[in-house]
Amino acid sequence: MKSTMEDIVKSVLNPDLHLPLFYATDLSRLPPTDVNHCDMSAVLLELQALRREVRDLKPLEQEVCDLREQLSCVERCTNIERYAAEGMIPKSINDFPPLTGSVTVPEKLDVPLENGKYAQYGK
């Protein structure tokens, strides 16, 4: 019994010893498995990992929305700068053309005075 234990310990601790690997080369020769033979702990671990990934993606959704909003703002600003460079819109308030127009002033202007009479001013 002691020698068997020593052999097992030597084989486990020896890094040069390579134990044979057993695997199926033809999966069709394996017996079918159903839900009763499934390792539910592995399924549970996978489910927990998937839930964790979904929770980690939730904050990214808000970040993507914020980035889209910033991108649209940058596109609007870029379009304004492009239009300004093409001369379609003024670049600053000083670039606006002066307001022009004609104002007609009457020859004589009647202005009411305090005593109820009118004074006439004009050219």
Q: Count of helical segments?
A: 2
SSE order, one letter for each helix or strand: HHEE
**What Rg do the Cα atoms give?**
45 Å
- What's the pLDDT, averaged over the residues? 76
Structural class: mainly alpha
- Number of beta strands: 2
Q: Mind summarizing the main beta sheet? A: 2 strands, antiparallel
First and last CA, distance: 134 Å
Residue fraction in strands: 5-15%
Number of domains: 1
Flag low-confidence runs.
none
Give the proportion of residues in helices.
40-55%
**Rough outline:** rod-shaped
What's the short story on this structure?
The chain is mainly alpha-helical and 123 residues long.
Question: Key terms for this structure?
Answer:
123 residues; mainly alpha; two-stranded antiparallel sheet; 2 helices
Describe the structure.
There is one protein chain. This protein has 123 residues and is mainly alpha-helical. Helices cover 47% and strands 8% of the residues. It has a two-stranded antiparallel ribbon. It is rod-shaped, with a radius of gyration of 45 Å.
Write the layout of secondary structure elements.
Blueprint: H1 2-13, H2 40-85, E1 108-112, E2 118-122
Antiparallel strand pairs: 1-2
